[in-house]
Amino acid sequence: MKFHINLLEEFGAHLLTGLVSQGIEMLIEQIEHRWLAAFERTFALCKVQPNEVVALLTESQSRRVNVDLARLALQQMGAKVFEVCLPTPALNAPAPIRSTGATDVIQNLAPVVAALQRAHLIIDCTVEGMLHAPELPTILKGADGVVPRLFMISNEHPEILERTVPNPALEAVVRNAMKKLRGTQHMHVTSKVGTDLNIQLKSAVVGGVWGFCAKPGMVSHWPGGLALAFPAAGSVNGILVMAPGDVNLTFKRYLRDTIHLTIENDTIVRIEGQGVDVDMMRSYYQAWIDKEGHRDACAVSHVGFGLNPAARWDAMTFYDKRDCNGTELRAFAGNFLYSTGANEVAGRHTLGHFDLPMRHCSIALDDQFVVQEGELVKGVFESAAS
Fold it and tell me: What pLDDT, on the 0 to 100 scale, is given for residue 100?
């Protein structure tokens, strides 16, 4: 028995040494004072008040340390907290689902919806999040004179959340960007590697996230700091070129290969290039085409750009895949975010989803550059946040 124990200890030591040599730090998930303080600062921006009723929405696969940090911080602030924990549903898809923002844990259970409707604030710790969940509109209508607000905590290790505690000044930046998008007819995205994408925004629905929500009916998520638009059907055409260093967040992977995407009437009709990144993208799209019998997973979901100077493009380098969801990379300042999948504005519904943040793009709104070669143009969304 002693031999076996020593062998296991030796194996564990070699494994740890190997991980460290590869640059992978073994992060421990436990209650830390600095993380509790980060949650309290963020909830203070959400205007949590003593005796306010706060619901923690969780599932069996939720990152438990974040649930515990949220509960303790809320209790420390005097809120009245209750938790609704639901079983994570069985996978009913042709491939793993990641980064959809459309959790299916509630399953339209009327008692759960009723409970959430009566909370002043809902802290969403589900794995995928409630942003596009079918029950959300009903929940946000509220009940008994209460209109809830929803705050999604991304499924990240607490260290990531600590680094990206929202800056209050981001609200003005994102609001200015949203206003600009709402007044825009045409977005033109270009890059030195060949991107030439035309996006009509006339009938688009515009959204934005600054990382906290203080008013009834609002929805936000942490980390935050981006503005985006959901284009109407038939609004996107052109060439999108993804270069090495761009990101496929569904795969939590930095590209090593160049991918050329031809987009016609919203839909990717050709994927060109060589290498494993190209093969993996084709394979994932094909899984949804075969399952659903249409190409909605290949069509545009939303487009936008990151505005958060505290968010880092290189952040995934420092974490194991299980430690991060990648929300930070959607928000790093100056990115162009192109996403495919569900788009209610265009009448498309699918669980297949890609979030594709890209560097070094230039973005013009009605011929005015707001991003040039991956850098926000100074003075367009001026704020103390920058």
Answer: 77
Do 339 and 356 touch, CB atoms closer than 8 A?
Answer: yes
The whole-angstrom separation of Cα 254 and Cα 378 is 28
Position 367 pLDDT exceeds 80: yes
Q: Phi, psi at residue 268, to the nearest 5°?
A: -70, 115
Q: What Å distances lie between residue 284 and 96, 98, 105, 250, CA to CA? A: 9, 12, 23, 10
Stretch 151-177: mean pLDDT, rounded? 96
Q: Of 319, 289, 302, nearest to 356 (Cα)? A: 302
Span 311-350, pLDDT tens digits: 999 999 999 998 999 999 999 999 999 999 989 899 998 8
Which residue is associated with the tokens 């009448």? 347
Euclidean distance between CA atoms 305 and 376, whole angstroms: 9
Closest by Cα among 347, 370, 372 to 362? 372
